[in-house]
Amino acid sequence: MDTGMQLTEKGQRDFELINRILNYGDQSAYDEIRKYYYNTLYIMMLKIIKEPDDAEYLTSAAFEKAYKSLRHYTPIFSFSTWLFKIACNNCIDFMHIKAKDYQFEY
């Protein structure tokens, strides 16, 4: 993965970690990127969902989906923006499913 552009310090750090994951299957790089973003993402999910267990599930699901789709990430946007977009989309889907579960037929 080559950016061909100037990255911020955070962007460069994320870019290098992503390259280690993609090119070498480096689990420690994945753990490191999770460490950087997990708490912030969890807090965002908790503010939206208001249930700690659901927020934790959605946070983990976002990281899993991002990991599986990592080859599609391009550093035009920051990794955190991409990750948070995945998490928000998962959250919207989750809320739709949950709303359907609570609908009653009269």
Offer a few descriptive terms.
about 110 residues; mainly alpha; Rna Polymerase Sigma Factor, Chain: A; 4 helices; about 0% strand; elongated
Task: Characterize this entry briefly.
With 106 residues, the chain is mainly α. It has four helices and no strands.
Q: Can you name the CATH architecture? A: Orthogonal Bundle
Q: What is the number of independent domains? A: 1
Helix count from the secondary structure assignment:
4
- Give the total of beta strands: 0
- Mean pLDDT equals 90
Largest sheet: none
Beta-strand content bin: under 5%
- Percent of residues in helical segments? over 70%
Along the chain, the helix and strand elements come as HHHH
CATH superfamily: RNA polymerase sigma factor, region 2, helix turn helix motif
Q: Label the overall shape.
A: elongated
Instruction: Give the end-to-end Cα distance, rounded to a whole number of Å.
Output: 55 Å
Q: Kindly identify the CATH topology.
A: Rna Polymerase Sigma Factor, Chain: A
In terms of structural class, how would the helical and strand content be classed?
Answer: mainly alpha
Calculate Rg over CA atoms. 16 Å
Low-confidence stretches: none
Look at the structure and give the CATH class. Mainly Alpha
Topology (SSEs and partners):
Blueprint: H1 9-24, H2 27-49, H3 52-68, H4 79-101
Helix pairs in contact: 1-2, 2-3, 2-4, 3-4
